[in-house]
Amino acid sequence: MTQNQSRSFRLLRSAPTWRLPLLGLAAGCAGFLASPAHAEYRLASGDTIEVTIAGEPGLGRRARIDLDGRVAVPLIGEMPAAGLSLDDLRAQIQTGMASKVLRRRSADGREYPVTFSSDEISVDVAEYRPVYISGDVSKPGEQGFRPGMTLRQAVALAGGYDIVSQRIASPAFQIADLNAQRDLLLPQLADAQANIARIQAEIGGKNEISGSQIAAAGGADTVPPGLVQTQNTQISLRNAGQEREKTYLVEAQKAVQSRIEALNDQQQKESQGAQEDVNELTRAQNLSQRGLLTSDRLVDARRSQLLSATRLLQTLAETAQSEKDKQELAWKIGSFDDQHKLELLQALQDASLKLAMVRSQIRGVDEKLMVLGPRSQLIANDRQKPQLAIFRNAASGGQIAADENTELLPGDVVDVKLPRRPFPELSME
């Protein structure tokens, strides 16, 4: 088996159960890494890296960068990661893994080499270090980091502003929380629309979707950068995977047919040999009865006849099993397209349900904002802005003055301080 043949064989064996983790994660990370503010983000201890190989789900791995700044990578082992950008780490991993050669066994038991190209190796950040929020919020503590997260969103996840000692119910703060919730829901709306557009494109046999299909859901400003490209990449990869699996089934059916033909030829020869051994045993028995043949020669004739009969039975059993395999492959090929369409329809139903839920949540937030809007005007003139500060490590700048629109980085510690005087207009409530 040549290297090209072994490579083709490995690709044909790739089942469609692998799903590249380029789904929602890739969309979020693409937008995060594409923005100028975070173009040079450096990985650090606590970030989780995910390495996947197209068609090789068993080699994929998620690994957290340890305290020494190292991460464990399949086929390579531990390597330095802290202080590198994602692009730098991705290039090093792709180069290192592309130089490795695996040994696999084919169905007939022969070994063949397996190598990977850089395009088949995907490296992404599966989970960033959390951010921490303290001070005048309802739920201080750790918050999971999301690419593009602003301080306003972090406050919303922490339950909103809250002066614990006075428990001020401020409509202005409630409106800020609701706006942050709405800001979080709009990208989810775009993502749900993108999933539906992608699934509909796959069902319709199309190879891409357009940004207008997603922007129509909530405005062009709600579409995360790179979302359309990521969905189109998913379409291409999924279509390629389906085509590879179908080709594998067809080639496997051809291989089984070839095996059946070889077994039939072998069966014919075994039958002839078995009949000859039976005739030889009969002749030996006649000679033995007349005293012209020793008992040892008669035993040899019986043993030879038994072995030939056994080989014939084994050949018949292998032929029957191959016929069964051929029928199963024929059924899989016949139902392949229908099964794939059923999976897409189920995925479309789930995505439509998620879209309905997100729309319902946005509608609820909008209704609350309509109610709170007039109330907030009563204290708008006296509202005092909270004092916000971000603490980063020395390499990133130490303490940073911030506002609600400041974007956070993994590992940031946010301190929130609110004025300690109540709003006069709220004394009646």
Automatic annotation (TrEMBL):
Residues 131-161 form the Soluble ligand binding domain. Pfam families: HH_AprE, Poly_export, SLBB. Residues 180-366 form the AprE-like long alpha-helical hairpin domain. Keywords: Signal. Residues 36-103 form the Polysaccharide export protein N-terminal domain. One of its GO terms (molecular function) is polysaccharide transmembrane transporter activity. Residues 1-39 form the signal peptide. InterPro entries: HH_AprE-like (IPR058781), Poly_export (IPR049712), Poly_export_N (IPR003715), Soluble_ligand-bd (IPR019554). This is Polysaccharide export outer membrane protein. It comes from Faunimonas pinastri. The lineage of its organism: Bacteria, Pseudomonadati, Pseudomonadota, Alphaproteobacteria, Hyphomicrobiales.
